[in-house]
């Protein structure tokens, strides 16, 4: 993230120790996602990775690839609340079969979900952009934060863009292995 954008983001939501997430914050995060090769951007609300509760605001652009993954039991639960846009959440079994799909967002029947540990999941942005808040147990430890499933392309793989289209079209019962 460039320094100017980081300063603007910090200014937008920091006021007397209260963090304000407003339209300007959302739009700045979307611009950052648009400029990112990963087509997503995040802003941490917690102070450090050792904090017992991790709070992150994530901006997505359509086409971003979040590989199917799960979090080990030590990370416990994970909560997503979609505050703007339309996200499709996919829940898989360990072999790559879609067990469930949910459309999340303020204009959908479901706007938030809390997942237990070891739930294999991915999500795709179904609108031009989407914004969600992720809350999970800390501390964050990169080495065991998530396990990416071997049956799906890794991020940056040449097959990732085609796999995103498969995720967008997937329904319960579909196998989404390579």
TrEMBL record:
Question: Is Lyase one of the keywords?
Answer: yes
Where does the Cupin fold metalloprotein WbuC cupin domain start and stop, copy by copy?
23-104
Molecular function (GO) terms for this protein are: lyase activity
Keyword Ubl conjugation present in the record's keywords: the answer is no
The region annotated as signal peptide is: none
Q: Which Gene3D superfamilies match?
A: Jelly Rolls (2.60.120.10)
Q: Which UniProt keywords apply?
A: Lyase
Q: What is this protein called?
A: Histidine ammonia-lyase
The organism's taxonomic lineage, starting at the top? Bacteria, Pseudomonadati, Pseudomonadota, Gammaproteobacteria, Oceanospirillales
């Amino acid at each position: 993230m460039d320094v100017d954008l980081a300063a603007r983001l910090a200014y937008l939501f920091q006021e007397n120790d209260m963090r304000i997430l407003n339209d300007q914050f959302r739009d700045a995060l979307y611009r950052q996602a648009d400029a990112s090769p990963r087509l997503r951007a995040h802003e941490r609300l917690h102070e450090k990775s050792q904090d017992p509760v991790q709070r992150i605001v994530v901006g997505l652009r359509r086409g971003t690839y979040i590989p199917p993954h799960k979090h080990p039991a030590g990370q416990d639960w994970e909560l997503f609340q979609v505050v703007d846009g339309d996200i499709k959440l996919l829940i898989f079994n360990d072999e790559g079969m879609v067990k469930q799909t949910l459309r999340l967002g303020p204009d959908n029947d479901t706007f938030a979900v809390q997942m237990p540990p070891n739930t294999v999941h991915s999500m795709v942005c179904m609108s031009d952009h989407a914004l969600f808040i992720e809350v999970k147990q800390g501390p964050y430890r990169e080495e065991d934060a998530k396990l990416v499933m071997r049956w799906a392309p890794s991020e940056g793989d040449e097959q990732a863009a085609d796999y995103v289209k498969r995720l967008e079209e997937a329904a319960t019962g579909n196998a989404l292995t390579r």
